[in-house]
């Protein structure tokens, strides 16, 4: 991994107000870009995909805290993360996203670490979706609960969705639109059908002495995070400086409502039994509210939603690896694209990780993923504040309307939440996460070594060197 230089990257004049930022060659070819509507649904699936998996919040804390969580959490986590993603993605509209931000602010070592942690999170996250897919279908098709049929189903599903990713991001985006509309329709129907059955007193049930805070926070965190994932696709978006901020704002509203309304109708329409609120229980809630037809619709919608989340997450993960390779952080082979413009090796690596991890339980996967994700987000928050301080005059096509102090204060609530997730994590999850982080710390110097030995070819190009050089020139001109 060579030091950043300017051999093959275009002029990145981010210090002025020019909207024409030259991008890496791989990002400026004739591949069709992603437009607004597909991008909104890609973000929706990267973050949430609907209320599937949100049942654990009721199991952990009861209806009142579950509903309050999905009201308050967007303000202390979703909106700050989405705003930071909008500002930084328009500042660096290339593939690699948060890797580029952190590298520019803190150096390539920490950029690699955030890339490693976030890629692991993405692969771990994707391992959930075959599990959730089968959890929702096993009540209708019991043979999928265990054994060879379950293993075969996971393998077939993974291969099918991996192929769709290979065929191109535009196909993935429009597939996400179709899947998103279809998977949310039954919950709109359930909300309407439930109105005559609602008893508002059921929403107020709370027992603070019987709250599983670890499960509660992990469930909220898993259902409402990953807003930064879209940044790794910035180089594939049409007019990213305008499209990304708008798409993120629409997606925040969509995600919040898609989680809150089904829980509102479910907890208000049927008697509470917290022990039943586990993965897949919303299908049973739908049956109690509307009958067997609605239950079947929710089950099919859940399966559809999990396929959508898989597609979106794999796209983000694979393009992240492509971006890291274009920056010289990974071997150049990771930057190779298929004839459809997709990163072949990144897709294969992500699919392999999914198959290896898909045997874990839902709760184990969520807890391990969230802890790693927290580490990556801390680096992103630090990078955001440092870029505000280090390059105040750099061009920001979308800029959060706060100063340096405001940018620090905006990061405080999500940082407190991160600390809570870390403190409440189990020893097993903490140890596994520590091992994964340690591997990342060792991998960076190892890749540096094999690059120096020329065992594997790394890219010589870097977008970041131009950014630093042009900002230095701009700052020097202010002093003249």
Automatic annotation (TrEMBL):
Key word Hydrolase present: no
Family classification: Belongs to the amino acid-polyamine-organocation (APC) superfamily. Polyamine:cation symporter (PHS) (TC 2.A.3.12) family.
A Gene Ontology term for the protein's cellular component: plasma membrane
TM regions (residue ranges): 34-54, 60-79, 91-110, 140-164, 171-195, 247-272, 340-358, 370-388, 400-423, 429-447
Protein name (Swiss-Prot/TrEMBL): Amino acid permease/ SLC12A domain-containing protein
InterPro entries in the record: AA/rel_permease1, RMV1-like
Claim: Transport is one of the keywords in the record: yes
Keywords: Cell membrane, Membrane, Symport, Transmembrane, Transmembrane helix, Transport
Organism of origin: Capsella rubella
GO molecular function, one term: polyamine transmembrane transporter activity
Pfam families in the cross-refs: AA_permease_2
Cellular location(s): Cell membrane
Gene3D superfamilies reported in the protein's UniProt record: Amino acid/polyamine transporter I (1.20.1740.10)
Membrane topology, from the record: Multi-pass membrane protein
């Amino acid at each position: 991994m060579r030091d950043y230089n300017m051999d093959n990257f275009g002029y990145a004049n981010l210090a002025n107000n020019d909207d024409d930022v030259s991008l890496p060659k791989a990002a400026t070819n004739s591949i069709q870009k992603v437009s607004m509507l597909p991008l909104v649904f890609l973000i929706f699936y990267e973050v949430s995909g609907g209320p599937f998996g949100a049942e654990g919040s009721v199991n952990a804390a009861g209806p009142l805290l579950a509903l309050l969580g999905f009201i308050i959490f967007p303000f202390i986590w979703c909106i700050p993360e989405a705003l930071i993603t909008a500002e930084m993605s328009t500042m660096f509209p290339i593939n690699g996203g948060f890797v580029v931000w952190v590298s520019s602010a803190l150096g390539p070592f920490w950029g690699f670490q955030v890339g490693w942690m976030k890629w692991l999170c993405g692969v771990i996250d994707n391992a959930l979706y075959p599990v959730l897919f089968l959890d929702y279908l096993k009540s209708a098709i019991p043979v999928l609960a265990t054994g060879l049929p379950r293993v075969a189903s996971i393998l077939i599903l993974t291969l099918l969705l991996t192929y769709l990713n290979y065929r191109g991001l535009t196909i993935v985006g429009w597939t996400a639109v179709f899947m998103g509309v279809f998977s949310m329709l039954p919950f709109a129907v359930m909300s309407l059908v439930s109105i005559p059955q609602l008893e508002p007193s059921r929403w107020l049930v709370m027992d603070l002495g019987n709250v599983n805070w670890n499960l509660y926070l992990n469930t909220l965190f898993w259902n409402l995070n990953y807003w930064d994932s879209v940044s790794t696709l910035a180089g594939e978006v049409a007019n990213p400086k305008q499209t990304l901020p708008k798409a993120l704002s629409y997606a925040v509203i969509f995600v919040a409502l898609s989680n809150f309304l089904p829980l509102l109708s479910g907890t208000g329409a049927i008697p509470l039994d917290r022990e039943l609120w586990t993965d897949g229980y919303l299908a049973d809630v739908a049956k109690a509210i509307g009958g067997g037809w609605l239950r079947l619709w929710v089950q099919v919608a859940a399966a559809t939603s999990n396929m959508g989340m898989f597609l979106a997450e794999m796209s983000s993960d694979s393009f992240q690896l492509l971006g890291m390779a274009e920056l010289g952080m990974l071997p150049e082979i990771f930057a190779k694209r298929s004839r459809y413009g997709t990163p072949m090796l990144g897709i294969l690596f992500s699919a392999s990780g999914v198959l290896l991890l898909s045997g874990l339980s839902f709760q184990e996967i969520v807890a391990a993923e969230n802890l790693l994700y927290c580490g990556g987000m801390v680096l992103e928050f630090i990078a955001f504040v440092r870029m505000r301080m280090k390059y105040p005059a750099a061009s920001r096509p979308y800029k959060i309307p706060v100063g340096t102090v405001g940018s620090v204060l905006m990061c405080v609530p999500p940082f407190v939440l991160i600390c809570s997730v870390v403190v409440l994590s189990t020893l097993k999850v903490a140890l596994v996460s520590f091992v994964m982080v340690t591997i990342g710390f060792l991998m960076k110097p190892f890749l540096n070594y094999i690059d120096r030995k020329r065992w594997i070819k790394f890219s010589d190009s870097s977008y970041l060197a131009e950014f630093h050089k042009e900002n230095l020139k701009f700052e020097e001109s202010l002093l003249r």
